[in-house]
Design brief:
Blueprint lengths: L8 E2 L9 E3 L19 E2 L1 H10 L4 H8 E6 L4 E6 L12 E2 L2 E2 L7 H5 L2 E3 L14 E5 L11 E3 H7 L2 H19 L9 H12 L1 H9 L3 H4 L4 H9 L1 H17 L3 H6 L2
Antiparallel strand pairs: 1-9, 2-10, 3-5, 4-5, 6-7, 8-9
Bound molecules: iron/sulfur cluster (2 copies).
One iron/sulfur cluster (SF4) binds next to loops.
C-alpha cells in the first residue's frame, strides 16, 4: 500500500520486472498488520468491484461507506481512497488482529506493497514510463527475511497481474491525462462521467440500460448481453465509453451512432 507515513522512505532506485529483492510477510512477524494503518490507498475500478462484491454491497453503498473522494494530483481527475477509521492509528477499516478481513479481495495497492508502481502513485521522474519502487517503512521487518523474489514473481504471487490487466485502460487514462498541459481543465460533467464509469458500476449500468443510451448508440446484441451479465465486461465497456467521451477515440461508438 502507499503509505502517507512521514517516516516512510521511498527507495529512489527504479526497479523493473526482473529486479531481485528479499522480503517475506507472514502472520508470525512482529510487525504483522502495522502497515495497515496511517495509509493512503487509491482504489482502482477493479478494486471497487471486488470489494463491494466481497462485502455484498452495491457500488453506491461501498463508495459512501468506505471511500473518500479526492482529485488526483496533476490529472484533475476524481478518484477515491480507502476511508480510514477515526481511531488513534487511523487504521484501515478491514484490519483485524488476525489479518485482513477482505484479504482475497484486497486492493491492488495492498497486493503490491511494499512495492509501489508509478501508475498508481505520483513519483517524480517517471517521465511517463512505468517503473517499480520500494516503500521502506521503519516498522516493516519483512526486508530482514531471506525469501528472494523477482518483481515479476512477486506480482504473480500477489495476484497483481489480473488487477493490472483489468485496470490497464484506466491507469492509461491517468497517465495520459497527467501529460496534458495544466491549463486544460475538465468540465464538471466530464469529471462526473469519469467517476461514474470508473467507480460506480451499478450506476453506470443504469445509465446504459435505463436511459436513452441504447436508442442513441446501436450496440451489437452479443455485447449487450455480455455487459448485462458480466461486471468486468461492463467495466471494460465503461472505459471504452470514457475514451470516446474524452478523446473521441473508441471508433465503435462513432461508427454505430444512429
Ligand atoms: S512485514 Fe511489512 S508488509 Fe508484512 S505485516 Fe509487517 S509491515 Fe506489513
Ligand atoms: S485492505 Fe487489508 S491489506 Fe489493505 S490495508 Fe486494509 S487490512 Fe491491510
Amino acid at each position: 500500500m502507499t503509505s502517507s507515513d512521514k517516516e516512510a522512505c521511498i527507495d529512489p532506485v527504479k526497479y523493473d520486472l526482473n529486479s531481485h529483492f528479499k522480503f517475506k510477510c507472514h502472520k508470525d512477524i512482529s510487525c504483522f498488520t502495522k502497515c495497515c494503518r496511517g495509509i493512503n490507498i487509491i482504489l482502482t475500478p477493479y478494486d471497487i468491484i471486488r470489494l463491494k462484491n466481497c462485502l455484498d454491497l452495491s457500488s453506491e453503498e461501498f463508495l459512501a461507506i468506505y471511500t473518500t473522494p479526492q482529485i488526483l494530483e496533476k490529472t484533475d481527475l476524481p478518484v477515491v481512497t480507502l476511508k480510514l477509521l477515526d481511531d488513534e492509528l487511523t487504521s484501515c477499516p478491514f484490519v483485524r488482529d488476525e489479518g485482513c478481513l477482505v484479504y482475497k479481495d484486497r486492493p491492488t495497492t495492498c497486493r503490491y506493497y511494499p512495492l509501489g508502481v508509478t501508475t498508481l502513485s505520483h513519483q517524480e521522474g517517471s517521465d511517463g514510463k512505468d517503473f517499480y519502487f520500494f516503500v521502506k517503512e521503519p516498522h516493516c521487518q519483512g526486508f530482514e527475511e531471506e525469501k528472494e523474489w523477482t518483481i515479476k514473481e512477486w506480482r504473480h504471487d500477489q495476484g497483481v497481474d489480473i488487477h493490472d490487466e483489468i485496470n490497464a485502460e484506466w491507469t492509461g487514462f491517468l497517465v495520459r491525462k497527467r501529460s496534458f498541459p495544466v491549463n486544460i481543465k475538465l468540465t464538471e460533467k466530464s469529471k462526473e462521467m469519469f467517476f461514474m464509469a470508473s467507480y460506480n458500476i451499478d450506476k453506470f449500468k443504469k445509465f446504459i440500460f435505463e436511459s436513452s443510451f441504447l436508442t442513441k448508440y446501436k450496440l451489437d446484441e452479443k455485447m449487450i448481453e455480455k455487459i448485462k451479465s458480466d461486471e468486468i465486461e461492463l467495466l471494460k465497456f465503461a472505459l471504452e465509453w470514457l475514451k470516446f467521451v474524452f478523446y473521441q477515440t473508441g471508433k465503435k461508438f462513432q461508427a454505430e451512432q444512429k
